[in-house]
Amino acid sequence: MLEALGQVKGAVDDCADTMLWGLSDDQLLASLDATQVLAQRLATVQLGLVRELDGRGLAVAQGASSTAVWLRDRLRLSGRGARQLVQLAATIEAAPPAVRDALLSGAMTVEQGRVVAETIAALPVDVGPEVTDKATQLLVTWADRFDPTSLSRLGERVLAHVAPDLAVQAELKALERATERAEARRHVTLSEQQNGQVRLSGNLDTETASLLREAIDPLCAPAGEHDDRSPGQRRADALGEICRLALRTGQLPDNGGDRPQLVLTVSLNELVNGVRAGTLETGTRLTPGAVRRLACDAGVLPAVLGGNSQILDVGRQRRLFTGPLRRALVLRDGGCAFPGCDRPPRWCDGHHVRHWADGGVTALGNAVLLCGYHHRLIHRGDWTVRIAADGRPDFLPPSWLDPLRAPRRNLYHLRC
User: Fold this and answer.
1) pLDDT digits (tens, 9 = 90+) for 204-218
2) How many angstroms separate the CA atoms of 277 and 271, rounded?
3) Range scoring the smallest mean pLDDT among 34-38, 198-202, 251-255, 379-383
4) 89 CB contacts (<8 Å, ≥6 apart)?
């Protein structure tokens, strides 16, 4: 083998010395195709070598903890690349002989070979060798026309082509297994970060994921022409709005239905002046701006503290936009009142035009409905909202958008 590889090296040297600018278009394309075929054939040979030395335990015999670790150092691969190489070598070896033959002939790429091998391995054990052979040959034939991703999708339905009578039953069993695995592995994790963020990660089963998409998608559209949020940011905001809606229903267990509650352990002056951060029950710190924004439509529980910070008294909730007042607000605004926004009332919070912390009253003349996005926008301070003489909210754009700051209104929810 070493002699043959030496000849290949000499041929590669000759190719590397070729003046590519002297090739015709046809020669250039033909050379590209030839290098691809040879590269895949050589990669298949390398996989065979990796599998052989792994089977012999050669890496462990030389003091390495695993074949992957040994390959990482010897071939100067990343740890992930070395592990993938060992796994791919095992996958190809376990595949039907037709897969390896196709790889050695250059009829398909190594990545296609992996897809075919994994697809065949996933077939039900009771389909029999004849069906397995038919499926293998069909996939090898498809490899001449389809890339690995398309080949993988076709492989999911290969039984429907070679054994239609078994396909329906096999598909149902596969779906049941996949559903069981998804349900067993489902989880959601909220991880506190050091940069003021919380990382949301996890896995959902298909059914739950479809419900989440159905709930989020209607809220992911841009909220007007000046909405410069990325799609990911809009999805994050939509998830927050869904949680707010769930809290409003009053049907959640335990504290379900209560708006977020802020226990104020700072003086009212500090809240009004925005000079102190807030702390949630989890210990998470919030900026003064976030505290004031939550205070728009959240229950505030004033706490009287003793000298040793012992809670002496906790006052009752007040100044929420609930009951008849919220119904009047919904009738007046019809939804988010920000110009051009189409968010319905159920996605909106009541906002104090003059903040409650600044002495603003909880009344229709000091209230406006805002969706989550525009609620944050108003609290940033570029836009200003006021109640006009006719009792409806006007929005004044920032001067960089309109030097005259002409009042604007939302006509989307206007009732005739």
Assistant:
1) 877 787 778 888 888
2) 9
3) 251-255
4) 47, 48, 50, 51, 54
Asked whether the beta carbons of 148 and 112 are under 8 A apart, the reply is: yes
Closest CA to 325 of 376, 365, 385: 365
* Sign, Cα dihedral of 43, 49, 51, 53: negative
More confident residue, 195 or 262: 195
Contact status, residue 119 vs residue 152, Cβ threshold 8 Å:
yes
**Residues facing 394 on adjacent strands:** 386
Cβ-proximal residues to 96 (8 Å cutoff; 6+ apart), any chain: 120, 132, 133, 136
- Whether the CA torsion 207, 208, 210, 214 is positive or negative: it is positive
Report strand pairing: 278-279 vs 261-264.
unpaired
Tell me how far apart the alpha carbons of residues 258 and 247 are, in angstroms, rounded to a whole number: 6
* pLDDT the model gives residue 303: 45
254-293 exposure pattern, b = at least 16 Cβ within 10 A, e = fewer:
eeeeebbebebebeeebbeeeebebeeeeeeebebebbbb
Q: Are 284 and 197 in contact (CB under 8 A)?
A: no
The DSSP secondary-structure symbol of 205 reads -
pLDDT of residue 266: 46
Per-residue tokens: 286: 């919030």
**Whole-model pTM above 0.85?**
no
pLDDT band at 385, cuts 50/70/90? very high
pLDDT tens for each residue of 304-314 = 344 444 333 33
Q: What is the mean pLDDT of residues 174-203?
A: 79
Residue 279 confidence (pLDDT)? 56
Is 400 exposed, middle or buried (CB count within 10 Å of its CB: 0-12, 13-18, 19+)?
exposed
End-to-end CA distance of the chain: 86
- Beta-carbon contacts of 363 under 8 Å, excluding residues fewer than 6 positions away, are 325
If pLDDT is split at 50, 70 and 90, which confidence band does 396 have? very high
Cα 367 to Cα 44: distance, rounded to the nearest angstrom? 70
Q: Which residues contact 210 (CB under 8 A, 6 or more apart)?
A: none
